[in-house]
Amino acid sequence: GYFYDKPFIDLAGLVTPEVIPFLRDEGRLRDDLFARAATLVVFFPDWYPALARDSRFAPVFETNCAVTRAAGGKNMIVYQIVR
Q1: Rounded to whole angstroms, how far apart are CA atoms 4 and 58?
Q2: Which of 15, 25, 57, 74 is deepest in the core (most CB within 10 A)?
Q3: Can you tell me the distance from the alpha carbon of 11 to that of 71, in angstroms, rounded to the nearest whole number?
Q4: Considering the entire predicted model, what is its pTM?
């Protein structure tokens, strides 16, 4: 579960089920984030490579999980959405 006192958008659709129809459409996810005026987004860059490459998503923090790296994945990154 999530405990946070501000509204947030869940890209997996658990808390924000309206994103479920376009979970794998990075363009629509990006457009949805902009339409909702999101300021930060957190995801694994392997899951959304087009978003990770988009210059409007500026990395501000990257986790340093050895388990993720050992499994061959990239660590989760917090991106600031720059308009």
Answers
A1: 23
A2: 57
A3: 23
A4: 0.86
